């Protein structure tokens, strides 16, 4: 049967929480694991950001490591844990390999993640001495436990009695020349990868393929551990811990979960790796491979008598394991819902408040909260005591309560509050849709007209200035029309916070509610929102999700969550309802914006993901859209987008913290770092676009309506 090894990889982490690791080690040992690897920087949490620059973070990490070293759980197992380490006055992102109260190796990260949401070079320095190690002198608190004065620090591998283990840290897997290649050629059979990889729609496939590819040609066992949950920021780390053998995934954890600790195990045969590597071409390269320093440990991962190492044949790895992928609609239903739950229970507030407009964006936000309530109910029915305890506290139950949140509608009525804030410009259709959706999901719903407040503000202005602004429909100027729309939008934000603070009091409870925003990524990119209106909130679960994806999510939720009312939201024309409705005019979002939501998604991806400025965006789109739009039409669309983007960019500086789900998010605070004052018409770029557009032949053949459908 060969040499059988049970390996484990796990945890819902929270920056500066310093807990949960011992639980995962205990579970791994209970399942027979002899090697356990956890997520990146798991001791302090990956999302500490500038706290990594504080000496306290390193100090407390050593203190937690001391507890792990002295614990009963960490005996008889090799553990790979992560924390920051200061070596020769330089801070490194490190893995610490421990066994039976001893530190075997401190392995610093060599290639840092420093794009998008990642800023690792702000806190850490990469280890540049590849395949080299030197002495690291331990702090006294650790020396007193291990009896060690110094330990190896650097790019080395750990050699047990029966195999060899090498470390690859998160981003190092994504680099063109990953460390696992040279380590594998030098005889490393087990690779550990500790990651802090956050969720983005459609991202998991790339991660899985890289993990499979790591051992597909090389052979070996690959253990991938990732954080799961909200780490105190805009990101949701989507877990999905995996174990791969010779290019096949043999075990996979959940991508979205309310669990605090999840451990994935698999029993694998080292002889499978050796047989896979018995290829002449691989052996020739291995024979000339550079040598890694080996740190030896007198411990075997496999049992000496392998006939007793597997109690049941079902413990062996499954040969044909089906990898689980969620569709984007399911990702939207699950990822933001888990993020909202983590945020709610950790902020110690009493629930959420959402201005429910009757449009598809606030509808999507409400359905995501409904999904969160469903997940809580499912966990409660499985007997998850941590979820039940958190739900009782959030719902304001007394300490001796026996309440179990088994019904998502009942739980929503306790913690989710919605409100329709109508004016004379609102329609009965949106009011009715909001009420029926609230009834379907169980939220505590209120309905109000705010015309008296709007009129009071308008009259105050007229009293002070002697001028009475009018809507465009009543003969007013564009400035008057916009100002009157913004009064309504901003007053909704004021009312939202008033109701969020006082509704628990009205219901005889203490505490307050978090206000949810519901502006989507396309509207933020275009700037189609009012600064400090009810897009300004505490958090926004859909702020980095496109309108196109939100519609698909609503269509999915209609059937999956049995919410037939959602059909009405899908059929409705998106409208802000901030202007008077007349016989000849009904306000519509796409008409207001001068571009469609589908066009905005394309502009957004080209601007951010493909790194296009105005000119390069035009040169790409003139080829992609050339069969149904003339070059000058394409030029006008590109110029209009960049004009509106530039003059509204300042709004991104006050954007509500949003769940990060899309690569083209315009979030100015963490992700999309740009000026917020632009030359609004990009004179040089637009001049080049116009010159090229007029010189190109017109190849378009479609009717404008067909062209819109094509885009």
TrEMBL record:
Recorded catalytic activity of this chain's protein: deamido-NAD(+) + L-glutamine + ATP + H2O = L-glutamate + AMP + diphosphate + NAD(+) + H(+)
Transmembrane stretches, start-end: none
Protein's pathway: Cofactor biosynthesis; NAD(+) biosynthesis; NAD(+) from deamido-NAD(+) (L-Gln route): step 1/1
Keyword presence, tRNA processing: no
Keywords of this entry: ATP-binding, Ligase, NAD, Nucleotide-binding
EC numbers, comma separated: 6.3.5.1
InterPro entries in alphabetical order: C-N_Hydrolase (IPR003010), C-N_Hydrolase_sf (IPR036526), Gln-dep_NAD_synthase (IPR014445), NAD/GMP_synthase (IPR022310), NAD_synthase (IPR003694), Rossmann-like_a/b/a_fold (IPR014729)
Pfam families: CN_hydrolase, NAD_synthase
Entry keyword Zinc-finger: no
PROSITE patterns the UniProt entry points to: CN_HYDROLASE
Domain CN hydrolase span(s) in chain numbering: 1-270
Taxonomy, superkingdom: Eukaryota
HAMAP family, sorted: NadE_glutamine_dep
NCBIfam families: nadE
Family: In the C-terminal section; belongs to the NAD synthetase family.
Official protein name in the record: Glutamine-dependent NAD(+) synthetase
């Amino acid at each position: 049967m060969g040499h059988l090894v049970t390996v484990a990889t796990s945890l819902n982490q929270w920056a500066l929480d310093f807990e949960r690791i011992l639980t995962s080690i205990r579970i791994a040992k209970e399942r027979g694991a002899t090697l356990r690897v956890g997520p990146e920087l798991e001791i302090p949490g990956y999302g500490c950001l500038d706290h990594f620059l504080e000496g306290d973070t390193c100090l407390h990490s050593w203190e937690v490591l001391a507890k792990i070293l002295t614990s009963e759980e960490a005996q008889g197992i090799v553990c790979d844990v992560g924390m920051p380490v200061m070596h020769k006055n330089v801070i490194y992102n490190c893995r610490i390999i421990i066994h039976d109260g001893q530190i075997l190796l401190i392995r610093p990260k060599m290639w840092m993640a420093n794009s998008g949401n990642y800023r690792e070079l702000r806190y850490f320095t990469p280890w540049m001495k590849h395949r080299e190690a030197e002495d690291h002198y331990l702090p006294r608190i650790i020396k007193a436990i291990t009896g060690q004065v110094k330990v190896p620090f650097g790019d080395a591998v750990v050699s047990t009695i029966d195999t060899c283990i090498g470390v690859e840290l998160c981003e190092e897997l994504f680099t063109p020349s990953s460390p696992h290649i040279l380590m594998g050629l030098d005889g490393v059979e087990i690779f550990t990868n500790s990651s802090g990889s956050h969720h983005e729609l459609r991202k998991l496939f790339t991660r899985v393929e890289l993990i499979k590819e790591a051992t597909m040609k090389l052979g070996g066992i690959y253990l991938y551990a990732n954080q799961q949950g909200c780490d105190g920021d805009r990101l949701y780390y989507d877990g999905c811990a995996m174990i791969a053998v010779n290019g096949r995934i043999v075990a996979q954890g959940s991508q979205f979960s309310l669990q605090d600790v999840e451990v994935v195990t698999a029993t694998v045969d080292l002889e499978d790796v050796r047989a896979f590597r018995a290829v002449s071409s691989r052996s020739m390269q291995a024979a000339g491979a550079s040598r890694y320093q080996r740190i030896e440990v007198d411990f075997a991962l496999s049992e000496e008598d392998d006939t007793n190492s597997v109690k049941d044949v079902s413990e062996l790895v499954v040969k044909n394991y089906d990898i689980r992928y969620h569709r984007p609609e399911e990702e939207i239903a699950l990822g933001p819902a888990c993020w909202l739950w983590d945020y709610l229970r950790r902020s110690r507030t009493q629930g959420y408040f959402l201005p429910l407009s009757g449009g598809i964006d606030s509808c999507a936000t409400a359905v995501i909260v409904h999904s969160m309530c469903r997940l809580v109910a499912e966990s409660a029915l499985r007997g998850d005591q941590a979820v039940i305890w958190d739900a009782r506290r959030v719902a304001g139950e007394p300490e001796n309560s026996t309440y179990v949140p088994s019904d998502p509608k009942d739980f929503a009525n306790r913690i989710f509050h919605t409100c329709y804030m109508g004016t004379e410009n609102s329609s009965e259709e949106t009011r009715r849709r909001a009420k029926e959706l609230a009834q379907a999901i169980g939220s505590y719903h209120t309905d109000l007209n705010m015309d008296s407040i709007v009129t009071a503000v308008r009259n105050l202005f007229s009293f002070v200035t002697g001028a009475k602004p009018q809507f465009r429909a009543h003969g007013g100027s564009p400035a008057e029309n916009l100002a009157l729309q913004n009064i309504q939008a901003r007053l909704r934000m004021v009312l939202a916070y008033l109701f969020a603070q006082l509704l628990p009091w009205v219901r005889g409870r203490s505490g307050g509610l978090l206000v949810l925003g519901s502006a989507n990524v396309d509207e933020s990119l275009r700037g189609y929102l009012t600064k400090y209106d009810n897009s300004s909130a505490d958090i926004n679960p859909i702020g980095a999700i496109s309108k196109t994806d939100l519609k698909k999510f609503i269509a999915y939720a209609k059937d999956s969550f049995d919410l037939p009312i959602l059909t009405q939201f899908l059929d409705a024309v998106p409208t802000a309802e901030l202007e008077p409705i007349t016989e000849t005019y009904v306000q519509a979002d796409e008409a207001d914006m001068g571009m469609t939501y589908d066009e905005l998604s394309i502009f957004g991806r080209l601007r951010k993901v493909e790194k296009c400025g105005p000119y390069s965006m035009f040169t790409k789109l003139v080829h992609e859209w050339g069969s149904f739009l003339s070059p000058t039409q394409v030029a006008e669309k590109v110029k209009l987008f960049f004009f509106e983007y530039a003059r509204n960019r300042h709004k991104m500086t006050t954007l509500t913290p949003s769940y990060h789900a899309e690569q083209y998010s315009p979030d100015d605070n963490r992700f999309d770092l740009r000026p917020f004052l632009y030359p609004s018409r990009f004179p040089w770029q637009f001049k080049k676009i116009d010159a090229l557009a007029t010189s190109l032949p017109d190849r378009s053949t479609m009717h404008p309506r067909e062209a819109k459908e094509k885009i």
